[in-house]
Amino acid sequence: MVQNKGMAQAGSIGVIIGNRDFFPDRLVSEARVEIIELFKEMGINPVMLDTEATKLGGVETFQDAQKCARLFADHRDEIIGVLVVLPNFGDERGVAETLKLADLNVPVLVQGYPDDLDKLDVARRRDSWCGKISACNNLYQFGIKYTLTTKHVVRPQDPSFKADLLDFMGVCRITKGLRKVRIGAIGARPGGFNTVRYSEKILQRNGISVVTVDLSEILGHANKLTQHDSSVAERLQRIKDYAPTGRTPDEALIQMAKLDVALSDFVNANALDATAIQCWTSVQTNYGCNVCTSMSIMSENMMPSGCEVDVTGTLSMYALQLASGSPSALVDWNNNYAEDDNKCVLFHCGNWAKSFLPDIEISTAPILGTTVGEENTYGALSGRTPAMPLTYGRISTDDPKGIIKAYVGEGELTNDTLKTFGNRAVAQIPNLQDLMQYICRNGFEHHVVMNASKTAGRLKEALGNYMCWEVASFH
């Protein structure tokens, strides 16, 4: 087995090299070397048969499939996807039987080599163009989901295949992450937000666990702490290091630090990957500050946190984060932008990860302050998001249909003038009016997730093909 131990934590890719004995053996040997070199170049850890385990390390017979399946099963915990390499026609059954026996339930990428026009004689031809169709046909028959390369046949060093492989790694991360994610629902859904209702049972059927806690338990824990506790002092310093405090008074910063400790303790005790927190308006009324800064810190550190107990919004944050490897933010589809039909304003009181906010400052939430008193809203963040790439998306449970559905798309965040407060951005999205029609007609929430990437294709493949959710794509 070939394996780079140092990269195992990032996840490994199993490799099946298909073969048929009446094609030149050197094609298998050459492909093996090229794939190992490519994986090393891209920092991907391969799990593949040794050349001594089967003929040249390829998979052709049922016995070969058994050996490869056992190898994959031994590394089940680290393999996040499988690459099928067809240097020649390959044995269509061997590929499918390996995957069936291994029973990994991970994404599969199928690659085939192109022929050269001057090498179509018996001694040098590949026939991978045809073999790939047969391999996919067998995977389809076996009920095994798979992903295709952009070009039907392509060499490993082709730029398009490298891009395909990067996208595939993203698909693998999304699929693995969503099938075991644990989300904390902290507090009750605010009474005025029917829009964020969801089905825990539908999520659980898809491997997504929701851990609930009453907000009073979190606030009660926070209230028992004092500024002299080492954990509070540590969190207070973390908050000050994270963002300029502006005019936020010391007592508000201490309140924020105590709440941050209570939230962190709950997250750690329950091994959570993300949180959805009741903010509007209980935290302000019953505790006296906003939780936005803590949420921003968590999101920046790749533990997404969404407000208003929007669990599926937080799930969407996690999915987009898995796709890109960078933080996500939960935002409102909030305003039109002047008369431009393809631009709109994205907004929230102030809990976006600071990756989106180069001018970040701890402030207040003026809108919320009109009902609870602005002095009780310290902890909200202020900042404007500059121009950057945009992937947007939303996952939702459709309870009447008993399904999970989603939409994803791409656009740009712009530097257009925007004079307002809170966390804010201007988005330019092709066919924005059609998107708004789709959102409204299909009962999606007013919350959407933004991520500074171009990863909608990865999300569509992972959510639609492998998670088997209903996905609309707008990129």
TrEMBL record:
One of its GO terms (molecular function) is L-fucose isomerase activity. The keyword Isomerase applies. GO terms for cellular component: cytoplasm. InterPro entries: Fuc_isomerase_C, Fucose_isomerase_N/cen_sf. Keywords: Carbohydrate metabolism, Isomerase. Residues 346-475 form the L-fucose isomerase C-terminal domain. One of its GO terms (biological process) is fucose metabolic process. This is Fucose isomerase.
